[in-house]
Amino acid sequence: MKQTRWAYFDTSVLVKRYVKEQGSAAAWRLLQQYRFLSSAVAPVEVLSILSRRHTLGELTQRDVFAIRSRLHKDRSYWEFVEVGEIVLNQAEDLAQKIGLRTLDALHLASVLTFQAASGLTFPSLPPMSGSAKQPKSSRSI
Predict the structure, then answer these.
(1) N or C: the chain end with fewer CB closer than 10 Å?
(2) How far apart are alpha carbons 75 and 58 in whole angstroms?
(3) Residue 81 forms beta bridges with which residues?
(4) Which tens digits make up the pLDDT trace of 20-53?
(5) Rounded to two decimals, what is the model's pTM?
């Protein structure tokens, strides 16, 4: 199925694509339904989460290797917002004004920067963020 509508996904949704956990089925459906857009920091975050889960014994080395392989193949289907000066400046403002954590501010700044540059708006997706603050904050912007 060719996706024509964009949706911005944060790392928590991306992890659910590879690790079966609560919300994985919903994440899978959304990832199939929309074109994937995220911050360029998302792959780094995913690898960090996988490493942490391996250290905690939640994933085997074999699991991590298989997920990393799929992640690498899937990247050709994704679009990323580069974390440059515009995104960083906006993330700083968001962190100060709303009190977002660093990565949440980078994700929100990325989606807002993409929207401003492209003129596109995103569909209302269920709150699939791992951060309780991020969806609430993004609705208030």
Answers:
(1) N
(2) 24
(3) 39
(4) 999 999 989 988 888 899 999 999 999 999 999 9
(5) 0.80
Residue of 63, 33, 38 lying closest to 51 (CA atoms): 63
Q: 73, 44 in Cβ contact below 8 A?
A: no
Enumerate domains of the chain plus CATH numbers.
Answer: 6-129 (3.40.50.1010)
CA angle at 113 for the pair 17 and 32, rounded to the nearest 5°: 25
pLDDT, position 82: 97
Query: Which among 31, 20, 7, 34 is positioned nearest to 107, based on CA atoms?
Result: 7
134 within 8 A of 108, measured Cβ to Cβ: yes
Highest averaged pLDDT of the listed ranges 10-19, 122-131, 132-141: 10-19
End-to-end alpha carbon distance in the chain:
32
